């Protein structure tokens, strides 16, 4: 590192309140020649940086398959589980159904914590490959299940893939994405999650209407193998994150990767962007070299900037799950069936499609409007809708002792009120939590980005499991 003493001060993690002064310069050469501390990457913009190249569109699309898998494998359970019948030796009890459904969440907790914390050592690509292998193995085990324990094991294995993908895919995209369009790029992965849920609901509705149940549920789970194998094959063509390449001493490969992403950038811009990567990687290296795992874990909570960032992103992740939206998706087929709708899975398309549509709108405007402003504006709408849902369900189930009973004819007006409240709830959720929770890496210092993402995403799954 040039001017070692000065530069070490800028990355020294032992300084409790060290702050980097951000200055704006019009001249790239001025920054490169005179600024010796950590440079804010937002200051360095390539010409036409807001124009995404075809090459980068390919990178995003392949990486975002992880989001699709996340959505499909969490969404398909609502359609497939009611079709199981006695295929596992007996009719599933409510407790068994809940355990099978929760299996993915439990596996995801382990996947997020393990693959997330190992992302620097494994690299982003290999961590995603492991997630794909878990996706594939889990789907095969579930589709071939003939007992409850076997399907639970399959759900646990599949959950490892879901949890790993939830951490690594947005982290990988954020580290590759041009600063000017980072929100939209990470949003693509976020959009693919509800898109996968829509596809799962649509296929599930079709299978419930026209495919024998004893084989239909197996095919629904087995179909998850297709995108996971596709991504596994396409990962060969994706570069490793420039930050990981620099961490491994492969600066030439990192430069080539940046050059492909910023197709019209000058060599000066590429050199400066590479310098920024190297400076932040230096901070990571210092932390890993000077501190043991236990000391690093302690530092996350004793160093105020780290603690504040981790608590903030973990809170957003947890609250996104505590809204109950994913629980609604898990049980949408069952809930809508009990409400008297003939094809519960078809009705389950309502929240899935609405969520996907408004995630698309949210990710399109997030860079202009801002993450915080979107949440401040629309979260109150979720509160109103949730209150409406509680009141509607209270009066709907009052004659049945607070329970949704099969074959009971509920009043059409109250069923409509429940559906209306769900619609009003999903719209602001899609505009906010559904995609904003996956921008966590933006708020984390690079030296703790992988570990911080793992912690926050683990909190996400713990909140869902709770």
Automatic annotation (TrEMBL):
It is found in: Cell membrane. PANTHER family: PROTON MYO-INOSITOL COTRANSPORTER. It comes from Cryptococcus gattii serotype B (strain WM276 / ATCC MYA-4071) (Filobasidiella gattii). This is Myo-inositol transporter, putative. GO terms for biological process: myo-inositol import across plasma membrane. The keyword Transmembrane applies. Belongs to the major facilitator superfamily. Sugar transporter (TC 2.A.1.1) family. The keyword Transmembrane applies.
């Amino acid at each position: 590192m040039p001017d070692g003493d000065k530069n070490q001060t800028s990355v020294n993690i032992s300084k409790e309140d060290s702050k980097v002064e951000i200055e704006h310069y019009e001249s790239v050469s001025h920054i490169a020649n005179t600024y010796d501390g950590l440079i804010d990457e937002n200051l360095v913009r390539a010409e036409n940086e807001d124009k995404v190249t075809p090459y980068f569109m390919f990178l995003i699309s392949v990486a975002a398959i992880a989001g699709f898998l996340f959505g499909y494998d969490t969404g398909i359970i609502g359609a497939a589980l009611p079709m199981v019948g006695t295929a596992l030796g007996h009719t599933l009890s409510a407790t068994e159904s809940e355990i099978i459904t929760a299996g993915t969440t439990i596996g995801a907790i382990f996947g997020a914590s393990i693959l997330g914390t190992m992302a620097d050592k494994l690299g982003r690509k290999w961590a995603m490959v492991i997630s794909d292998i878990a996706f594939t193995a889990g789907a095969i085990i579930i589709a071939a299940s003939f007992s409850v324990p076997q399907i639970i094991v399959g759900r646990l294995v599949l959950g490892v893939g879901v949890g790993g993908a939830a951490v690594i895919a947005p982290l990988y995209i954020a580290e590759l994405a041009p600063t000017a369009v980072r929100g939209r790029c990470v949003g693509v992965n976020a959009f693919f999650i509800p898109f996968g849920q829509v596809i799962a609901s649509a296929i599930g509705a079709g299978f419930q209407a026209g495919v024998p149940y004893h084989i239909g549920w197996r095919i629904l789970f087995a179909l998850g193998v297709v995108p996971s194998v596709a991504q596994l094959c396409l990962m060969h063509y994706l570069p490793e994150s420039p930050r990981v390449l620099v961490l491994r001493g492969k600066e030439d490969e990192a430069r080539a990767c940046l050059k492909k992403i910023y197709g019209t950038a000058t060599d000066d811009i590429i050199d400066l962007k590479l310098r920024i990567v190297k400076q932040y990687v230096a901070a990571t290296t210092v932390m890993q070299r000077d501190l043991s795992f236990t000391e690093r874990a302690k530092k996350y909570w004793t160093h105020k900037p780290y603690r504040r960032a981790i608590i903030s992103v973990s809170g957003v992740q947890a609250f996104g799950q505590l809204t109950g939206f994913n629980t609604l998706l898990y049980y949408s087929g069952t809930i809508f069936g009990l409400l008297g709708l003939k094809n519960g899975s078809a009705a389950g398309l309502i929240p899935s499609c609405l969520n996907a549509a408004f995630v698309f709108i949210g990710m399109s405007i997030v860079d202009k409007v801002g993450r915080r402003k979107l949440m401040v504006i629309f979260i109150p709408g979720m509160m109103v809708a949730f209150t409406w849902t509680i009141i509607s369900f209270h009066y709907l189930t009052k004659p049945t002792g607070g329970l949704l009973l099969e074959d009971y004819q509920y009043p059409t007006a109250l069923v409509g009120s429940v559906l209306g409240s769900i619609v009003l709830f999903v719209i602001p959720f899609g505009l906010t939590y559904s995609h904003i929770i996956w921008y966590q890496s933006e708020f984390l210092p690079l030296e703790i980005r992988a570990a911080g993402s793992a912690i926050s995403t683990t909190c996400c799954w713990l909140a869902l499991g709770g």
